[in-house]
Structures are given as C-alpha cells and as structure tokens.
Amino acid sequence: MGNGNGNGNEGGFKDQETILLLFTLFGILIILLLLLVAITFQTWALWKLAKTVIDQNTESDGGRRRSEVA
C-alpha cells in the first residue's frame, strides 16, 4: 500500500507539472494574441494616417499646379 501511495503522489506531482505547463503556455498564447491585435491596430492606424497625408499632399499639389498653369 505504501508503494501505491507513492505512485499516487508522483502521478499527482506530474499532473501538477502538466497543469502548470499548460497554464503557462496558455498565458503565453494570450499575450501573443494581444500583441498581434496591438500590432494590427497600430498598422491600421499608421496606414490610415499615411493615406490622409498622401491625400492632402495630392490635393495641395493639384492646387499649386492649377495656379501655376493659370
């Protein structure tokens, strides 16, 4: 019976290690997903900002060209 209890404790310890490993990996996965969302949002915001700047430069270049032609 003593051996049975010892094996049960070792099995419980392995189960705790497995749970800890899975918990850690799940935490890392959540952090990576949050980083992916943050990088995606920053890329979208940068693209939108760049598009706005390009549109403004295009409009002002068009205005200059019209005044130069006239």
Short description:
Helix content is 97%, strand content 0%. The protein is mainly α and 70 residues long.
Structural class comes to: mainly alpha
Oligomer: single chain
Number of DSSP helical runs: 1
The radius of gyration is: 30 Å
Taken in chain order, the helices and strands follow as H
Please give the share of residues in helix. Answer: over 70%
Mean pLDDT: 83
Strand content: under 5%
Largest sheet: none
Distance between the termini: 103 Å
What is the 3D shape? rod-shaped
Spans of 5+ residues with little confidence (pLDDT < 50)?
Answer: none
Beta strand count: 0
Keywords: Membrane, Transmembrane, Transmembrane helix
Transmembrane segments: 20-41
List keywords for this structure.
single chain; 70 residues; mainly alpha; 1 helix; 97% helix; 0% strand; membrane; transmembrane; transmembrane helix
Structural account:
Keywords: Membrane, Transmembrane, Transmembrane helix. The chain crosses the membrane at residues 20-41. By secondary structure, this protein is mostly helical. It has one helix and no strands. The mean pLDDT is 83.
Secondary structure topology:
Layout: H1 2-69
